Amino acid sequence: MVCSLGIEGSANKIGVGIIRDGEVLANVRRTYITPPGEGFLPNATAKHHREVILTLVQESLKEAKIKPADLDVVCYTKGPGMAPPLLVGAIVARTLALLWEKPLMGVNHCIGHIEMGRHITGAQNPIILYVSGGNTQVIAYSNKKYRIFGETIDIAVGNCLDRFARILKLPNDPSPGYNIEQMAKNGSKYIKLPYVVKGMDVSFSGILSHIEELADPTKNPNKRKKTQEAESPETKPADLCFSLQETIFAMLVEITERAMAHCGSNEVLIVGGVGCNERLQKMMEIMCEERGGKLFATDERYCIDNGLMIAHAGAEMFKSGTRMPFEESFVTQRYRTDEVLVTWRDD
């Protein structure tokens, strides 16, 4: 039985979670929210995290009804992510490990999402669609590693949604992607957008540039002739949100289905913040049902970045015998999913 505390702070969310032998004891989180039309800058995000992280640690211990002495390992997000916010989590984790005399474990953020999703849903060996503000990958497990079958070649799908939300001046509370999703529910007219699938990879930057011009033709630096859609008074923000979701989610369903066919899998697990999107879940579910497969997904408690996923993945690593020397407790902005040796799986 391993009791683990995890700290996640790779982007604009800072969370602390505690798990004991698979039982969720605590999962607390805060989000750095900026004004409409603005993103979050690394240093400002780190400042927010520094101001709330100790409170979150105290809240998690109180919610879990345990003492530091009951913990077996302290875990933190090693990467990928933005360096200043990552450093906040790493420094606090190092400090707690030293104060409490506990082992320290650095966890890959992507692996945390995957293992939390598998644990909560019970999916055995699924094709994984990992979609968030910083990552877009189609993944399958093989020979002690999570192999990347396809990914974005430019920006992540969540980044595409967030940046379009800024163009529309949608609120960042609770998240830009969520507000895009709600506005899309009021859309009914599909506007044709670029559909960019290259083998198993996808591209979103061109789609974003195109739809930005439809929403605001003055954004076109080359002052090309306005498209017919942009000139039409019937082009509404809700229709643009609807069209954007339908297009980019169809791209993701396509490459996920191709991975299922290649691996002979009948399970799909969606993880990451964008995985909360109900329309993406529905489109993926339809594809899975047509193939005789099953979709696994979680709600915002586990899809959105949280400390619990770091605690769980760290506990799995710790139980399998993985140990991290204190000298290696650094952070890295680039830490790919397929760099991690999966010591805790025997299949």
UniProtKB/TrEMBL annotation:
Gene Ontology CC annotation, any one: cytoplasm
InterPro entries the record matches: ATPase_NBD (IPR043129), Gcp-like_dom (IPR000905), KAE1/TsaD (IPR017861), Kae1_archaea_euk (IPR034680)
Cofactor: how bound: Binds 1 divalent metal cation per subunit.
Alphabetized UniProt keyword annotations: Acyltransferase, Cytoplasm, Metal-binding, Nucleus, Transferase, tRNA processing
Coiled-coil residue spans: none
Reaction(s) this enzyme catalyzes, per UniProt: L-threonylcarbamoyladenylate + adenosine(37) in tRNA = N(6)-L-threonylcarbamoyladenosine(37) in tRNA + AMP + H(+)
Domain Gcp-like: 24-311
CDD domains, A to Z: ASKHA_NBD_OSGEP_like_euk
PANTHER family to which the protein is assigned, alphabetical: TRNA N6-ADENOSINE THREONYLCARBAMOYLTRANSFERASE (PTHR11735)
Protein name: N(6)-L-threonylcarbamoyladenine synthase
Organism: Drosophila madeirensis (Fruit fly)
